[in-house]
Amino acid sequence: MRHRTTRHSLPGGSLRVRPGLSSDAGEVEALVESVILEDQWFLTTPDEWQPSEARRARDLEALLHAPGSLALVAVRNGAVLGLAQARAGALRRTAHESHLEVYVRADARGGGVGRTLLTELVRRARERPEMRRVALAVFADNLRARALYEAIGFVVEGCRRGASRERDGSLRDELLMAMDVGDPR
Predict the structure, then answer these.
(1) In the chain, what percentage of residues exceed pLDDT 70?
(2) Residues near 27 by Cβ (< 8 Å), separated by ≥ 6?
(3) Residue-wise over 13-36: b if at least 16 C-beta within 10 A, else e?
(4) How far apart are CA 60 and CA 31, in angstroms?
(5) Once rounded to an integer, what is the mean pLDDT over residues 69-96?
(6) pLDDT of 2
(7) What are the backbone angles phi and psi of residue 128, rounded to the nearest 5°?
(8) How far is residue 84 from each of residues 18, 64, 89, 121, 166, measured CA to CA in Å?
(9) Which tens digit of pLDDT belongs to each residue from 119-167?
(10) pLDDT above 50 for 48
């Protein structure tokens, strides 16, 4: 069940969604780096970014086997276009909540890759009894991502005003969003 591939028909062509494997580390690391270098969507700035294919391979392998965690890649024509990863909290009291990060190649945005990845991640999370909540943080001004998260079923649970300071000194708000995916026992 954890290793299955699903196929999705999208306007840009067929998309396969499957677990991220250590053998994907090079492509996944390049994808993440391309998004970080845009310097808009994540807290990490390009000058703070320290790519490591070996570290990424270990991380993908760990997410593949860790309870409460998932890493899915979207692949078209053999190329990784997107990554959605949800990592369970490290402490007993937070292990039921998985923190989500989504990366989609710039040239693949707007074509359903992110929506397909998120929908598949939520579907698989609902099959896993150890996953109860999926949570994320998104910049309040990232309207495209917010709309996608809300369409999938995430709700805003809070706002961290001025949570990020930009290079020009301006402050950006960060929204905390979450979705319940499991039995709340």
Answers:
(1) 97
(2) 79, 80
(3) eebebbbbebebbebbbebbeebb
(4) 14
(5) 95
(6) 52
(7) -110, 110
(8) 10, 12, 16, 7, 25
(9) 999 999 999 989 999 999 999 999 999 999 999 999 999 999 999 999 9
(10) yes
- Measured from the Cβ of residue 168, the count of other Cβ atoms closer than 10 Å reads 5
Report yes or no: 89 and 99 within 8 Å, Cβ to Cβ.
yes
Q: How many residues appear in the chain? A: 185
Cα torsion through 111, 112, 118, 124, rounded to 10:
-130
8: its two tokens: 């999705």
Full DSSP string of the chain? -TT--EEEEETTEEEEEEE--GGGHHHHHHHHHHHHHT-SSSSS-TTT----HHHHHHHHHHHHHSTT-EEEEEEETTEEEEEEEEEE-SSGGGTTEEEEEEEE-GGGTTTTHHHHHHHHHHHHHHT-TT--EEEEEEETT-HHHHHHHHHHT-EEEEEEEEEEE-TTS-EEEEEEEEEE-S---
Domains parsed from the chain with CATH numbers: 6-133 (3.40.630.30)
Residue holding tokens 């993440």? 32
